[in-house]
Amino acid sequence: MTDGDGSTEQRLFLSLAEQLHVSFLQLTKLQELDGTTKSKQSDAASAITRTAMQLTESYMLSLRLRSSTDVLVVEPVSILSVLREAADELQPFAKLLGVQLTFDFYKELGPIMTDRSVLKAAFMSLGQVLLMAESQSDTPAPVVLVAKRSRYGITAGLYGLHNALNVSAFRRARQLQGRAAQPVQSLLGGPAAGVFVAESLFETVACRLFVSQNRNLKGLAVTLTPCYQLRLV
Predict the structure, then answer these.
(1) Positions in the chain whose pLDDT score sits under 50
(2) Residue 76: helix, strand or coil by DSSP?
(3) Region for residue 98 given its phi and psi (left: phi exceeds 0; alpha: psi -120 to 50; beta: otherwise)
(4) Confidence (pLDDT) at 84
(5) 21, 26, 134, 159: least buried by Cβ within 10 Å?
(6) Sign of CA pseudo-dihedral 41, 96, 126, 145
């Protein structure tokens, strides 16, 4: 495929994602107008729609960044603030799936230089996948959002009990990306396109997604470099 073909394909995917996003937005507005008939079903429909919207938004952001349509806004950011905000927006989806979303944060973590919106979108896309994976179990365990100091800086990621993640299997899934419809499905028990959307976003802010372990839980994480001399935003 030539560079021109790749650019055309990228524009086509972006157009498709934008059209899907418009449809989801219309559904959300209809649900908001129908506020007089609140029910568990309408709450569930709203959570599903917003989750799908978030994934398409993240995908579009990734495409725009890779095509230089958008540029990064790099500033000093509190990683804990980003993770808490992402978790708050994931809670309705977690509730719908019957999976608890919890935290394991170090209290004192230095600020990082990054694009806040990109980092948040990446963690939300990743969170959707780990929550879905855990929901496939008859006895789902909590999904844990972790941020801690590590040898190389700050490790931040999401972890669960019921998944088949390991380094070699994830490497193979990466190799199959673009050639198989759902290369991570066997590792996470369901559709997991959000993993590669998250990975694409992490790469735009110079982060590498990797398989990680936190106590008895397995998950996916990135390493971030703190800049202690900077002021938080």
Answers:
(1) 1-2, 5, 180, 233
(2) strand
(3) left
(4) 95
(5) 26
(6) positive
Structure tokens at 71: 């540029």
Q: Using CA atoms, how far apart are residues 183 and 63, in angstroms rounded to an integer?
A: 20
Tell me which architecture the domain covering 75-224 has in CATH: 2-Layer Sandwich (3.30)
Q: CB–CB of 31/41 below 8 Å? A: no
Reference 23, options 59, 47, 45, 52; nearest CA is 52
- Residue-level pLDDT at 142: 95
Q: Are 75 and 113 in contact, with CB atoms under 8 Å apart?
A: yes
**Is residue 212 within 8 Å of residue 159, measured between CB atoms?**
yes
Condensed to tens digits (0 to 9), the pLDDT of residues 87-130 reads 999 999 999 889 999 999 887 788 999 999 999 999 999 999 99
Q: Which residue from 120, 135, 146, 151 is spatially nearest to 54, judged by alpha carbons?
A: 120
Predicted pLDDT of residue 2:
45
Tell me whether strands 101-105 and 143-150 are parallel, antiparallel or unpaired.
parallel
